[in-house]
Amino acid sequence: MARRIALTMLSLVGALLLTAVVPLGLLTTARERASFREDTVLTAQAFAALAEDALTEHDSGQGIAAFLARARRSGEDGWVYDASGRVVARTTGPGAPGDGGVPAGPAGQVSPVPAASISALLHGGGSRITQAADRLRVAIAVDDPGARSPVGVVVLDRSTAELNERIRVLWAGLAAIAAAGLVTGAVLAAWFGRWAGRPLSALDAAAQRLGGGALDTRSAAGQGPPEVRRLAGTFNTMAGRLEALVHGNRATMADVSHQLRTPLAALRLRLDLLAADADEATAAELADAQEEIARLSRLVDGLLAVARAESVVIEPARVAVAEVILDRVAAWAPVAEERDISLAASAPGHLPARLGDGHLEQILDNLIANALDAVPGGGHVRVSAYPGGRGARVVVADDGPGMTGQQRAAAFRRFAGNTSGGTGLGLAIVHRLVTSNGGSAALSDTPGGGLTVTLDLPGAAPEQVVRPSGRATIPYQS
After folding, report:
1. Which residues does 183 contact at the CB level (< 8 Å), separation at least 6?
2. Are 435 and 388 in contact (CB under 8 A)?
3. How far is 222 from 195, CA to CA, in rounded Å?
4. CA dihedral of 80, 82, 85, 86, whole degrees rounded to 10
5. Please, are residues 256 and 297 in contact by the beta-carbon 8 Å criterion?
6. 204 Cβ partners below 8 Å, 6+ apart?
7. Beta-carbon contacts of residue 339 (< 8 Å; ≥ 6 apart)
8. Between the ranges 23-32, 213-222, 303-312, 418-427, where is the mean pLDDT highest?
9. Ordered domains of the chain (ranges, CATH)
10. What secondary structure letter does DSSP report for 70?
11. Across 41-59, average pLDDT
C-alpha cells in the first residue's frame, strides 16, 4: 500500500510539474523570440532612416557609417542598396566603414538578398522578414517623402545564436526546477507512503496473527493518520475482548472436563463392582450402562479435541503429503483387515503442502476412522492425493452408505454426523484443522455409492520438510 500511495503522489506531482513547466517554457520561448524579432525590426527601421539621408545626399553618410560600425562590432551584418539595386554600403568588404565614406559597390557584386526580392521592395515598398538557419534577416524599403518610389533598400542580418542560447538556458533551468520538484515530491511521497502504509501493514499482520490463533496479538495504535490510529485502537479492543472470551471458554471446557471425568470414573468403578456380584440379567443392564458411560467419556474427549482444534495457533511448515498418507494407511491397515475392508492409498512421490506439524496426521486419522466405521465388511476405502489448485488435493473415498444432501450440508457441525457408538465430532475436527491452515474441505457422493471427502490443502513454501511423525495430538473422533 505504501508503494501505491507513493506512486500516486509522485504521478500527481509529475503531472502538476508537466502542466506548469512546459507551458511556461513555451510561453517564455515565444516571448523571447517575439522580442528578438521586434527589436531586430526596430533596429532595421532606424537603419532605413539613416540610409534615407545618405541616399538622398542630405548628409555625408557618416550616420550610416557609424551604424554599420556598431553592427559589425555586435556581430550583425548590414547592407544598403540604392534605387538601381546596387550595394552602396555594407559592414564588411568594399564599401565598409573606414574605406572612405559610402562608396558604391562594384556592379555585379553578390547580394545577400535575391535580386527579385530587392526589385519587389523597390517597386512595392514595405518590408520582408526571413529566417535562415540561425540568422534573422530584415529587408526594408527606404522611402523618400519627395519621391514616388523607394530610393533604396536596407538589409539587417542578425544572428540568433545568443537568443537560442538564452532559450537553452531557460529550458535547462526549467528542467532543473522540474527535476528538483520531482525529487522532492518523490521523497515526500515515500515518506508519506511509509507514514500511512506502515501502520496499515502492521494492522494487517496483527489481524493475520490473531486469525491464526495468537490471541495476545495487539497492533501499535500511536502511528499513522488519525483514522488508522482509531482503527488500530478498535482492533486492539476487539482482540482483547476476543482473548477474554476464548480464554473463558477454554477455562470452562477444562473445568467441565475435569468435573465430569472424575464422577464418570467413579461411576464406572462402582458399576464394575456391582457387576461382579450381580446376576446375569442385572450384569447385562450394568454392561449397557457402562457402554453409555464410555460413550459419554468419548464425548467429553471429543469436545476438548474440537476446542483445541479451534484455538490452535498455526505454525505452518512444509509437509510431504504422500509420505504422511502412506504412513497413516499403514497404521490403519490392521483395523481394516480385521473388519474385512480394503484400505488402499495412492499419491505421487513429491507432493508438498503447508500445514501445522501433525495436523495432516490428525485429519487423516479422523477421516479413515469415520470411513472404516461406515463401510460394511467387503467394502473399500481409498486415500489418494494429487496436485490441485495452489497446493495439494487429498481425497478419501468409500463405498459405504454415504450421506443425503441435507446430511452433507450439516456434516461439519458438531454432533451433526453422529452415528451409533460415535460422537459426531470427527468431521468437525477435520473441518476446523483444514480451515485453520488456510485450506478447504468438501463432501460429495462417491460414484456408485458412498461418501467422498475432498481436502484442498495450501501449497508449500521452500522451507524445511516435516517428516510424518506418526502421532496425533488431537485424537480422532467418529
Report:
1. none
2. no
3. 11
4. -70
5. no
6. none
7. 372, 377
8. 23-32
9. 2-165 (3.30.450.20), 226-307 (1.10.287.130), 315-466 (3.30.565.10)
10. H
11. 82
pLDDT tens-digit map of 385-415? 988 777 899 999 999 888 888 888 888 876 6
Backbone angles phi, psi at 415, to 5 degrees: 65, 0
pLDDT at 1: 62
Q: What is the DSSP string of 138-174?
A: EEEEE--TTSSS-SEEEEEEEE-HHHHHHHHHHHHHH
DSSP annotation of 438 reads T
What letter does residue 384 receive in the DSSP assignment? E
User: What is the reported pLDDT for 334?
Assistant: 93
Q: Return the residue matching grid coordinates 503442502.
A: 353
In this structure, what C-alpha cell is assigned to residue 67? Answer: 551604424
Does residue 282 carry a pLDDT above 60? Answer: yes
In SS3 terms, 269-297 reads as: HHHHHHHHHCCHHHHHHHHHHHHHHHHHH
Burial 73-101 (b: 16+ CB within 10 A, else e): eeebbbbbbbeeebbbbbbeeebbbeeee
Mean pLDDT of the chain: 80
Give the CA distances from residue 337 to residues 141, 459, 478, in Å, rounded to whole numbers and listed in that order.
121, 33, 19
Amino acid symbol at 317: A
Detail the DSSP E strand segments found in 220-331.
Answer: 317-320
C-alpha cell at 149: 518610389
Q: Is 478 helix (H, G, I), strand (E, B) or coil?
A: coil
Closest CA to 167 of 35, 39, 75, 32: 32
- The tally of CA atoms less than 13 A away on the side-chain side of residue 470 is 5
CA distance 388 to 347: 12
d(CA 431, CA 409): 13
According to DSSP, the residues that pair with 346 across neighbouring strands are 384
**Which grid cell sits at 7?**
506512486
> How many Cβ atoms from other residues are within 10 Å of residue 435's Cβ?
14
Report CA 175 to chain centroid distance, whole Å: 30
Cβ distance 476 to 362 under 8 Å?
yes
Per-residue pLDDT reduced to its tens digit, 442-477: 999 998 889 999 999 988 554 433 444 443 334 444
Q: Are 432 and 423 a contacting pair, CB within 8 Å?
A: no
200, amino acid identity: L
Secondary structure class of 136 (helix, strand, coil)? strand
Place of cell 521592395: 121
- End-to-end Cα, the chain, rounded Å: 46
